[in-house]
Amino acid sequence: MRRYTIGGAKRRSGRLLKRIGERLAETPKPKEPGTFPADFGRWAAGRNGRLRALYPGGWKKLIDRTPTGARVGVVVHVYYTDLLPGIVESLAAIPVPFDLLVTNASGEPVEIDPDLLPRAARIQILPIENHGRDILPLVSLANAGLLDPYELVFKVHTKKSEWRQAHGELEGSGDQWREAFFEELIGSASVVERVLGEFASDPSLGILTSDGNVLGPEFWGGDVDIVGSLLRRIQLDLELDDLRFAAGSIYWIRGFLLQALRSFELSADDFEPEQGQVDGTTAHGVERVLGLTAIEAGYDIRTASELSAEIDQEAWRHYEVEAIRAPRARVIPFYLPQFHTFPENDEWWEKGFTEWSNVAAARPLYHGHVQPFLPSELGFYDLRTPGVRDAQYELATSMGIEGFMYYYYWFAGKKLMDFPIEDLAASDRDQPFCIMWANENWTRRWDGSESNVLIAQDYDRVPAEQFIHDVMHLLLDERYIRVDGKPVLAVYRITQLPEHRSVVDYWRAEAVKAGLPGLTLLTVDVGASMQGIVGRPADQGLDGYLEFAPHNKLWAGLPRDVFGFDERFEGNFLSYAAMAEDAEKTLLRDGAEADRYPGVMVNFDNTARRQWQPDMWWGANPYTFRRWLSAAVGAVADRDPDQRVVFVNAWNEWAEGAVLEPSQRFGRSYLLAVRDVLVR
C-alpha cells in the first residue's frame, strides 16, 4: 500500500529517546574485519544476495522432515560418547512424545536403541565437526529449520567441564555441575511433569535451568565485544547491566528462542577453531545472547527452585500430541496484491513492472543495511501462478494466522490489482479473507500525496456509495472474515469520502438488503494530522479503529553519525524499539478500548521505493516484534473470542520491509514469533 508522509507523523521526545541514543552510542562499535570471527564489520562486508544453507551440506541427504506431531524436541550434542548412555536413560523420564535430535562431534559412530525411548517419535543422528562446542551444532539445527516444529525444547550436551574444578568463583566439579542439571531438570517423571506443567501454565517462562546457573553482568568475561557485534546483526543495542543467561548450556527453553537464532545468520565461519577455550568465543557469546534475546522477547529466565508450588498436576498434558490448540487471537496481516503485471503498471513504469522490480533494485544506505531485502522459500513469486497463494495460506495458517486483509484498489469504479482477490472469490479454496479500501491517490512517490499522481480518487465522477455494490459479491462470500457475523470492511482514510457518515449509512443499508446482518466497518487510526476521525468511531457511523503502525504511533528520530550513512541519504531514521516500547506500555496500561483493534508492525523501511529519501525504522527484529505482538494479543484477551482481532503490518510488503513471509535475512523467524504468541 502506498502511504506515510513524515509531516503527518506524531513526534515526541524525552527520556526514552535520549536513552536509546545513549545505548546506540555505547554499543561496541564494529571492529576491523578479522578481529574475531563473529565481528559485525566482517559479517556485514561478507553479506550478499545469494540464498545459501547455513548448516552442513552433508545433512541434506540425512534430514528427515516428516512431521511426527511431537510438540517437544530434545537436542543432544555428543562429544564425550561415554556420557551418552546416561543422558538417554534420563530422557526416558519425559512423559509425552518427543523428537530426539542428536548432533555428533565425537568422530565415532553413535547409535541409540529406540527401545530405550518408547516415547521418542523420531531419533535423528547428524554428524558434525567438532567446531563451536555445542552451540554451532545447535545453531545449525535452527538454521536447517529442524527445530521449527517444537513449542518446547530440552537442550543438553555431554558435559565434563573439567576446568570448573579450578574456577575461583564457581563451586563444584564438572561432574557435580552436570549431575545437578540432570537431577533438577529431568531427574524423574515427576520432575519433568512439573517442568512441563510450569511452561504450560506460565506464558512468561522462557528458559528454565538448574539452581545457581542464572548468571548476570558479573559474568561478562571476555564476551562483551562478541555479544555487541552479534546483537547489532539484529539491530539490538547492548545493555551491559541487563545480562541474564543460563550458564552451562543445559536447560528447557521455548522453541521460538532457539528457532529465532536463524536471525543471526551465523555460520561455521563465525566460530573459532577449537582450542579448549573457557571464555571469549562466539559459543560463549551466543550463550549470553540467548538470555538477552529471551528477555527482549518478553520472557523470564528461572531456576528449578523458582517453580511454582501450585501447578495443576495434569498441566503437563498440554504437550501431548492430541492436546487441543486454538489461537489466542484472530491475527490478520495486510496483504499487498501487486506481485503480478497489469496494463497500468506497464504504462506508468515499464512493461513487466511488479513490486519485485523495486525490491531487487534497492541499495544499502549504511554499513550493514540489509538491502535489497529478498524472499527465501516462496521466491520471487507471481500471484498469477497457480499454487502461489495456496502456499502462502498454508504457511500462514500453520502459524495460527486466520487469513489476510487484502488492500483493495478502487478508483471511481476502476479496479487495479484485483486479480488475486477475484481469483480467490471464483475458487472453492478454503482461504479466509477481507478487504481494506486503499482510498488514496496512486503516486510516483508511493505516498498518496497530491503530486505526481498516476491515478486519483475521483468521488465526483463516481460517488463512494457505488463502492459497496462493486464489492458486495466479496462480502457475501462465506469465507469472508466476520466479527459477530458481520463482514469486516475497512477504509484507509474514511474522512476523504465526501459526507462519509451518509456514505457508511448507505453501505450498511445496502448490506442488509443483500441479506447480510450488517457490516463491521473500520477505519485506520491515521491520527488528526492525516485528517483521521477525531473521537469515538461510533460518532462517525463506524464500528472501530484499525491500528496500522506506523500510523499514529511514536516516531522517534535516531542519531545518524553512529552508522555512517551514504551522503545522499535524505530520509528519516527512526527507532522501532521506541515505537514498540511506547505501544506496549499503552497496551499494558490501558488495554485496548472496545472499539479499537490493535495493530503491530513487523518493520518499515521503504528504501526499495524511495532509495535516498526513505522512512526507515532501526531496531526491528523477531524478538522485539514477538513482545509487541504478545502485548497486543494480551490486550484483547478479555473480549469475546470473535472480537479478539489483531492486525499485522504486513504479510508481504516487501518494498517497505514489513514482511512476515520467509526472507533470506530472517528465514521463518517472524512467523515463528507469531505462532509462539498465538498457539500454546
Largest sheet: 11 strands, mixed
Mean pLDDT, rounded to whole units? 91
Radius of gyration from the CA trace? Answer: 26 Å
Helix content estimate: 25-40%
For the secondary structure, the number of strands is: 26
Q: How would the global form be characterised?
A: globular
Uncertain runs are: 1-33
Distance between the termini: 32 Å
Q: What kind of assembly state do the chains in view correspond to?
A: single chain
Structural class, judged by helices and strands? alpha/beta
DSSP helical segment count? 19
Strand content: 15-25%
Explain what the structure shows.
There is one protein chain. With 680 residues, the protein is α/β, with parallel strands linked by helices. It is built from 19 helices and 26 strands. Strands 10, 11, 12, 13, 16, 17, 18, 19, 21, 22 and 24 form an eleven-stranded mixed sheet that branches. Helix 3 links the parallel strand 1 and strand 2. Helix 18 packs parallel to helix 19. The protein starts with 14 loop residues before the first helix and ends with a helix.
SSE blueprint and pairings:
Blueprint: H1 15-26, H2 40-46, E1 72-78, H3 84-91, E2 98-104, E3 120-127, H4 135-143, E4 152-157, H5 174-186, H6 189-201, E5 205-209, E6 214-215, H7 224-233, E7 245-246, E8 251-254, H8 255-259, H9 282-296, E9 300-303, E10 330-335, H10 343-348, H11 355-361, H12 388-398, E11 404-411, E12 414-416, H13 419-425, E13 433-437, E14 442-443, E15 453-455, H14 466-475, E16 482-483, E17 486-491, H15 500-513, E18 520-524, E19 544-546, E20 572-575, H16 576-590, E21 596-597, E22 599-601, H17 607-610, E23 615-618, H18 622-635, E24 645-649, E25 652-653, E26 658-659, H19 669-678
Parallel strand pairs: 1-2, 1-4, 2-3, 5-9, 10-11, 10-24, 11-13, 13-17, 17-18, 18-19, 19-21, 20-23, 22-24
Antiparallel strand pairs: 4-8, 5-8, 6-7, 11-12, 14-15, 16-17, 25-26
Helix pairs in contact: 2-7, 5-6, 7-9, 16-18, 18-19
